[in-house]
Amino acid sequence: MNNDLLRAVLARPDDDAPRRACADALGADPRAEFIRLQLANKGRAGSIAPRQRELLERHRRDWLGPLAGIVKQAGFSRGFVDFVVMDADAFVTHHAALFAAAPVTDLGLDNAGGRPAVFRAPGLARLRALTLTGGLTDADVTALAACPHLAGLVRLDLRHNRITRAGLEALAGSQHLRGLKGLDLSGNPVPDPRPTPVGEWPDVSWQTSALNRELVARYGPLPWLTRHDEGGLPPVGDL
Predict the structure, then answer these.
(1) Whether residue 202 has a cis bond before it, omega within 30° of 0
(2) In the chain, where do the E strands start and end?
(3) In terms of DSSP bridges, do strands 73-77 and 80-87 run parallel, antiparallel, or are they unpaired?
(4) Among candidates 202, 174, 192, which has minimal Cα distance to 229?
(5) Spatial CA neighbour of 74 closest among 122, 7, 90, 2
(6) Is the pLDDT of residue 237 over 70?
(7) What is the pLDDT of residues 73-88, one digit of tens each?
(8) How far apart are CA 151 and CA 132, in angstroms?
């Protein structure tokens, strides 16, 4: 793929035009068909999904390129890799190559506890969603909260780590996470502070805990404290 066209996709990940330009430049290459199919099917399930899957089964490894050897999972959206899961140590080593190869906006890191170097990667600025596993402690979460590269984050999944009230306070007080809409802390020592639903739709109401009310009083009505969802994001990675 033409490097200039790829750079345009990386620079404008929300814009479909550079992706269409890539498809046009690829001509009869199967990747061109795949990009067009995913763009046409954006945001909905449809009958063309089986054809997308067929193309991926044939060409996935080639289309992953340099990412094939460093990621555990990858999902394609709008024709390009958008979602990856990888080991935190691999990310520390290969983050520049990752963000130079694909417009990744949703990242999952395994074994991320005790690895503050993760939060020094400038490419994190592209992310809208981040999932971290591997026994993260309050110290790890404090480093996360201090990371200026995460200002664009919309969804943060920190389930099943070792985070206590101190880590929760660091997240709530972070000036870099003010745009966060979804935060999942379930499975940690600290109670999940999000409102919980009571009743059944459409008559559901939302119950807040004393912890929730205390945090709202101290830090304001942060979106993730006043709604119980995952940030309103569509599923990442069509396949």
Answers:
(1) yes
(2) 73-77, 80-87, 106-110, 129-132, 155-157, 182-184, 196-198, 205-207
(3) antiparallel
(4) 192
(5) 90
(6) no
(7) 999 999 999 999 999 9
(8) 17
